[in-house]
Amino acid sequence: MTALWTAAEAAAATDGRIAGDWSVTGISIDSRSVAAGDLFVALSAARDGHDFVADALARGAVAALVSRVPEGVDPARCLIVGDVMEGLRALGAAGRARTQARVIAVTGSVGKTTVKEMLRAALSAQGRTHAAEASFNNHWGVPITLARMPADTEFAVIEIGMNHPGEIAPLARLARPHVAVVTTVAPAHLEAFGVIEGIAHEKAAIYEGLEPGGIALAHADVGTAEILFDKARACADRLIRFGVGKGVEARLIEAQVAEAATVIRAEILGTERLVKIGAPGRHYAMNALIALTAAEAAGADATQAALALAGWTPFEGRGTRERLMLSAADDLEIELIDDAFNANPASVAASLEMLAAALPQGQGRRIAVLGDMLELGPTGPALHAAIADNPALAQIAAIHTVGPLMEHLHKALPGRVRGRHVETAEEMAAALPQKLRRGDVLLIKGSKGIKVSRVVDALRKLGQATVDQGKGPR
């Protein structure tokens, strides 16, 4: 495997000290998942990463980025810097500087990870493509993504997130994108920003990182669009507006949602296109419009990009759909929509719309388990209760709720759709199977912190146990 960094290159990039000659093929910050050939970065968060250097090296890491040599560790396997986080940031900056890749940076209140993954799919067939893993989008996720980027990369997709003011601009300047995207602005992280205009200003800061001649993509349908436009015009050489209204450069004309796909008709930069996405959901249509527009803006072939999206499917926790046999004896098979990774009012509305469009089997029903939407500040209770007014509820049989904030929705729901309310995901995991019947379509959605993913895990384990029991003797 080609070396990602030699010891000399890494030392030069970080202004660090080395006592050995080594090369690495990857970078890790978690000793538990380190791969053979990695450079282990000893970051300090809840615990000091230096405490895990020896374990990481024993598991196959070649060397470690440290600010001191831990006891018992060979100095020849260390890259010593003044500060580990600054060292990682410098390595990321060097990774970005040495490549000729066309770089796309993506942020937004909703859809940034999905757009990033769509771009990965759309660009991979056209050149060596590098994109952030999982949701590596914060102060360490962006540098590690850049540091992991091979020098011969042709397209790169960098996801940039935020929780507090002032986070996006430094990360955007580190990424130095040629194309910068704000997918949308919606109530999320209101606890830190107070008003949605504050969120819009922070999201628009991604444009500050644009390279000369850079292109800004901005959502024209949001109430804070002018904030995005003003910032884009100040920072970018070109502004591309997208949305459903007329007069934009990339317009979603129509979206038809089927059981296993979504077909969209759109006009993108003067050309009308018919595109099929390998997943059902109206919100995926807008995400695909954004991804295709960004790909074309970055110089990719738009037709090839559109064809590649036909094979795209959501990944775990972001709207994946699967069938689970929960009880062979009762023929209890359901369809699970796993959207348990993140939640805010806009993404919950999109998920409920997706559930409303799903087709239960036989006498099955559409059921949702909704966990708290976190970081909404003082408006949180009202925003939770407002979900009761979503028109998609007309097609949903029951909504079960998890968490203290979702109790406000529970109380606001009409009686016919009001399900069970519990405080924890563990309680819901224990109670839910008894409330399901054959043919149900079940959506599970919530912020990561409320841990409704544990409900998903419990159902999968129940399904696997049923499958294992049905195998018979060996």
UniProtKB/TrEMBL annotation:
User: Where mainly found?
Assistant: cytoplasm
**Which Gene3D superfamilies does the record match to this protein?**
Mur ligase, C-terminal domain, Mur-like, catalytic domain, MurE/MurF, N-terminal domain
> Which residues does UniProt call coiled coil?
none
Q: Which residues form the Mur ligase N-terminal catalytic domain?
A: 24-69
Query: What GO MF terms are annotated?
Result: ATP binding; UDP-N-acetylmuramoyl-tripeptide-D-alanyl-D-alanine ligase activity
Metabolic or biological pathway, per its Swiss-Prot or TrEMBL entry: Cell wall biogenesis; peptidoglycan biosynthesis
Q: Is Cytoplasm among the key words of this record?
A: yes
Q: What keywords would UniProt list here? A: ATP-binding, Cell cycle, Cell division, Cell shape, Cell wall biogenesis/degradation, Cytoplasm, Ligase, Nucleotide-binding, Peptidoglycan synthesis
The protein's matches in InterPro entries, at most eight in alphabetical order, are given as: Mur-like_cat_sf, Mur_ligase_C, Mur_ligase_C_dom_sf, Mur_ligase_cen, Mur_ligase_N, MurCDEF_CellWall_CoF430Synth, MurE/MurF_N, UDP-N-AcMur_synth
- Where does it live in the cell? Cytoplasm
Catalytic reactions of this protein: D-alanyl-D-alanine + UDP-N-acetyl-alpha-D-muramoyl-L-alanyl-gamma-D-glutamyl-meso-2,6-diaminopimelate + ATP = UDP-N-acetyl-alpha-D-muramoyl-L-alanyl-gamma-D-glutamyl-meso-2,6-diaminopimeloyl-D-alanyl-D-alanine + ADP + phosphate + H(+)
Ranges for domain Mur ligase central: 106-295
Record's Pfam families?
Mur_ligase (PF01225), Mur_ligase_C (PF02875), Mur_ligase_M (PF08245)
Annotated ATP binding lies at: 108-114
Q: Name one GO cellular component term.
A: cytoplasm
User: Which top-level enzyme class is recorded in the Swiss-Prot or TrEMBL entry?
Assistant: ligase
Annotated Mur ligase C-terminal domain residues: 334-447
Q: Name one GO biological process term.
A: cell division
Q: What is its EC number?
A: 6.3.2.10
The UniProt entry's sequence similarity note says:
Belongs to the MurCDEF family. MurF subfamily.
Q: What role does it play?
A: Involved in cell wall formation. Catalyzes the final step in the synthesis of UDP-N-acetylmuramoyl-pentapeptide, the precursor of murein.
Per its UniProt record, what PANTHER family does this chain match?
UDP-N-ACETYLMURAMOYL-TRIPEPTIDE--D-ALANYL-D-ALANINE LIGASE
Q: What is this protein called?
A: UDP-N-acetylmuramoyl-tripeptide--D-alanyl-D-alanine ligase
